[in-house]
Amino acid sequence: LQAKYVGTGHADTTKFEWAVNQHRDSYSAYIGHHSLLAYSAIAENESMGRLRYQFMQKMLAPCGKPPKREDE
């Protein structure tokens, strides 16, 4: 299942990785569904193109920098 759907996680998935997957999934849904993007644009009084760009920028690092691992 993990090979086909990357965001499903596995036993070694950290809390940070899970949160990043959730945020990216949400942003991709906002971008991919026209009605969600239009609703957000009206609510924030921004153009749809600007919001699409902002969501794509937020997908790069939605939760900030990853924490240091103990094994490194």
Task: Describe, in plain words, how this protein is organized in 3D.
With 72 residues, the protein is mostly helical. Helix content is 56%, strand content 0%. The protein has helices at residues 15-32, 34-44, 48-58. Helix 1 (15-32) crosses helix 2 and helix 1 (15-32) packs antiparallel against helix 3. It is elongated, with a radius of gyration of 15 Å. It starts with 14 loop residues before the first helix and ends in a 14-residue tail after the last helix.
Overall average residue pLDDT: 88
Q: Shape, please?
A: elongated
Beta-strand proportion: under 5%
Distance between the termini: 28 Å
Taking all Cα atoms into account, the compactness measure Rg is 15 Å
List the helices and strands and how they pair.
Layout: H1 15-32, H2 34-44, H3 48-58
Helix pairs in contact: 1-2, 1-3
Task: Give me a quick take on this structure.
The chain has three helices and no strands. The chain is mostly helical and 72 residues long.
